[in-house]
Amino acid sequence: MIMDASRPLLQGKGITKRFGGLTALSGVDFHVERGEILGLIGPNGSGKTTLFNVISGLLRPEEGRLSFHGRDITNLAPHKRARLGIGRTFQIVRPLATMTVAQNVATAVLYGREGIAGFREAEERAHYILSFTGLSEKADRLPSELGLGERKRLEIARALALHPEIILLDEVFAGLNPAEISQAIDLTFRIKEAFGATIFMIEHVMKAVMGTCSRIIVLNFGTKIAEGSPREVASHPEVISAYLGAAYAGN
Ligand SMILES: Nc1ncnc2c1ncn2[C@@H]1O[C@H](COP(=O)(O)OP(=O)(O)O)[C@@H](O)[C@H]1O
Ligand SMILES: [Mg+2]
């Protein structure tokens, strides 16, 4: 693909997604720059996961265009987007239940951007990714045998297996204890460094968002209400009333 450094890595214009009478996304414009850690926040039901579903191709928007490296991908199938380098995790983790942790990751490698086709090579790559995500000791376990923090890391490992250029992380910190959150923040930075990946993350855990993101987009009822640095969005009046609440505004 032809690279154009002047274009955002990923761009959405006027993205609208409806479910029957419900408008989950309403004319959302966004862009993701190469190498940034971009946050997506907003109250429950504000359309965050829907936006990731539109980006990864699971859902088609009724209106709007999506481009990657300046190429229109609005109508591209999900597996083709994965091959182009758009990887994601799912808020509800969805490993292949009858496969071991290592097989889950190796299978994902075979669908990835690197074009690895041999199973032996895929297994080697999978073992590197398992060690990177701290899952080596669980390689031969079934996903059901993992704790929540480990299952979240398996989701990240499966997304990394595609060798994505951009990785969409959907609430990978949810339900973790403070020590696990610190580990997950560290993992986020390591993903950016070791894989050279751009990160777009949905996160409720404010410590994680404020500590990792260089820029944040805020959705409310499917509309983008703010965008800026963590400091800017945290002090934005509409964000405070919509999302952070009166308690936060007092800080
Ligand atoms: N597949 C779907 N079918 C119908 N409604 C949906 C579907 N996915 C999401 N929604 C609705 O769209 C709105 C946004 O959902 P979602 O994007 O999951 O929010 P968030 O991730 O911000 O919590 C919610 O009202 C949700 O119930
Ligand atoms: Mg969600």
Share of residues in strands:
15-25%
Quickly count the helices.
9
Cα Rg: 18 Å
What class do helices, strands and sheet pairing give? alpha/beta
CATH superfamily of the largest domain: P-loop containing nucleotide triphosphate hydrolases
Residue runs with pLDDT of under 50 for 5 or more positions: none
What does it look like?
- The structure is a single chain.
- With 251 residues, this protein is an alpha/beta fold.
- It has helices at 48-56, 78-84, 101-110, 119-132, 148-161, 178-195, 206-212, 230-234, 237-249, and strands at residues 10-19, 22-32, 37-41, 63-68, 71-72, 86-88, 166-170, 198-202, 215-220, 223-228.
- It has a 6-stranded mixed beta sheet, sandwiched between helices. The protein has a 4-stranded antiparallel beta sheet with strand order 2-1-4-5, covered by helices on one side.
- Helix 3 (101-110) runs parallel beside helix 5 (148-161) and helix 4 crosses helix 5 (148-161).
- The structure holds adenosine-5'-diphosphate and magnesium ion.
- Adenosine-5'-diphosphate is lined by residues 19, 22, 24, 42, 44-50.
